[in-house]
Amino acid sequence: MPVPFEALLPFALLTVCFGATGTLFSIAKRATNDGKVGYFFEEYEENQWELARRRNSMNLPPRYHIDSWETMMMERDRRLTGSLRGQSTNPTAPKEFATNSVWETERVH
Amino acid sequence: MASHRSATFSDQPYSDPNPLPSSVPHVEELGTTSAPLKSISFQLGSHCKAVNDDFMLCKAESRDPAKCLAEGRKVTRCATELINKMRESCLSEWDAHWQCLEKNNQHFQACRKLEKGLNDCAFSKLNLSKSIPGSPDGPQVHEKKSPIFTRVQK
How confident is the model over B115-154, as pLDDT tens digits? Predict the structure, then answer.
């Protein structure tokens, strides 16, 4: 008896949809910056939206279960290397590190 | 309330460009980021125990940043000294371990093999061993042959 392929079409459609989503998603992840930071410490001249767009996702798995300690350390990494996931083993910090800490402020007058 | 004022937030983050006053002695800040620091955290803890304890006790007395600057400078100098020693003697093992940590959400349990290499190198060259304070009797969790909690199955 021949296989009733019409009945299996929805399954094939679902598989293709999932496959396409997954492929496009991984292409998008790979297409974002490879972990190279093209600039250092110019971030405060830029609009926050530009900054968020340029935040590079390297070819590393994302961090999860990030608590406030990890957030603080990742912010420190950003001040040291320019990227939230940038790492280095330099014993001394760049000169800008002394003054580039961000203070959450609100204008009162 | 009648005295309520609405919030005004700036779209630019605020950072103070003024350097520290010259009355504060200058110390080169540590440039090492989170993954390498986590990797040698226990070696740092045993090498710099005295100055770290001083700083923590000072902070326990008062949260004012100005009160603990001297102890903080000592901590920075001790950590810088250990980082320099690690770089000259155990750099490849250290690099391998912290890169493994970065790929695994900085979980120690995912990188035990490389951690063993790093601990052996640190013990032989710098006489620093890793021991977790408050561990129960028996082998430490990083030395167990078949630990209960390991990395997620890939």
Answer: 999 999 999 999 999 999 999 999 999 999 999 888 887 6
User: pLDDT value at position A45?
Assistant: 45
Which residue's entry shows tokens 């580039």?
A: A100
Chain A closest-CA separation from residue B38 CA (Å) = 10
Are A76 and B33 in contact by the 8 Å Cβ rule? The answer is yes
Up-side HSE of residue B85: CA atoms within 13 Å toward CB? Answer: 18
Q: Do A107 and B16 touch (CB under 8 A)?
A: no
Of the candidates A60, A108, A107, A109, the one whose C-alpha atom is nearest the C-alpha of residue A83 is A60
Whole-number Å distance between alpha carbons of B99 and B86:
16
Chain B hits for A87, CB-CB cut-off 8 Å, are 33-36, 98, 102
Is the CB of B32 less than 8 angstroms away from the CB of A61?
no
Q: What is the pLDDT of residue B31?
A: 95
Mean pLDDT along residues B89-109: 95
- Provide the shortest C-alpha distance from residue A10 to chain B (in Å): 30
Q: What angle do CA B73, B74, B78 make, to 5 degrees?
A: 120
User: Is the ipTM reported for this complex over the cut 0.90?
Assistant: no
- B89 chain-A contacts, CB cut-off 8 A: none
Per domain, the residue ranges of chain B are 34-127
Q: What is the pTM of this model?
A: 0.75
Using the Cβ of B67 and the Cβ atoms of chain A, whether some distance falls under 8 Å is answered with no
